[in-house]
Amino acid sequence: MQAIIPFIHQLFSETIQEGDFVIDATLGNGHDSVMLSQLVGDSGKVFAFDIQQEAIDQAEQLFQENNCTNIHTFLKGHEFATDVLDEQAINQIDGAIFNLGYLPGSDQQVTTTEKTTIQAIDHLLGRLKPGGHIGIVIYPGHPEGRQEKDAVMDYLSKLPSKLADVAKYQMVNRSERAPFAVIIQKN
Ligand code: SAM
Questions:
Q1: N or C: fewer beta carbons within 10 Å in the chain?
Q2: What is the phi/psi pair of residue 166, to 5°?
Q3: Ligand 1 near 116 CB (within 6 A)
Q4: What are 78-137's pLDDT values in tens digits?
């Protein structure tokens, strides 16, 4: 049985290919971007977003250590992702990852929020190629995260099945506050 983040990484390793364009909607320390960078290779691109310079600086160090030259970082909220990508990229998104919450070891007040998270998912889903996936790790263990979980799950539960299938991966014998994953597959 996979843990939550490895489950998302496995799904992407089975579906993302060399040359793909993918989005890391919450760059943080950069671990998801490094994984995506290795999957898409030199002919692909990773577009990574975070609102904290601290996250970008830490992640860029990790990219250097891992020789990742195909990651493009943006000091910008993911709700603006579809506004800043050029025409080629915006029409070629194969997948996106959201790892919600706050930067580990940093200010817990700077966290993803229900409004901008839903806006970003909605914009990206509109641009995602059919068959593409959005993987979301949700953290209901802190107050803003609980609110965000309720709002995001409500939004996802109402997505028309013609547009997308949505599945949840959660350990049922853990606290309700434990993180879980949601996968959106665009139809
Ligand atoms: N993916 C990261 C990794 O592999 O290390 C972990 C991400 S961390 C749990 C969540 C990040 O989302 C934080 O760095 C935070 O600054 C960022 N964040 C918060 N609001 C955001 C927004 N509107 N757009 C983009 N990033 C945001």
A1: N
A2: -130, 125
A3: yes
A4: 999 999 998 889 889 999 999 999 999 898 899 999 999 999 999 999 999 999 999 999
In our burial notation (b when 16+ CB lie closer than 10 A, e otherwise), range 129-147 reads eeebbbbbbbbbeeebbee
- Ligand 1 pocket check for 99: Cβ under 6 Å: yes
Ligand 1 and 106: CB distance under 6 A? no
The pLDDT tens digits for 23-57 are 999 999 999 999 999 999 999 999 999 999 999 99
Strands 180-186 and 164-169: antiparallel
Ligand 1 site, residue 28, Cβ cutoff 6 A: yes
pTM above 0.85, yes or no: yes
Phi first, then psi: what are they for 39, rounded to 5°? -75, -40
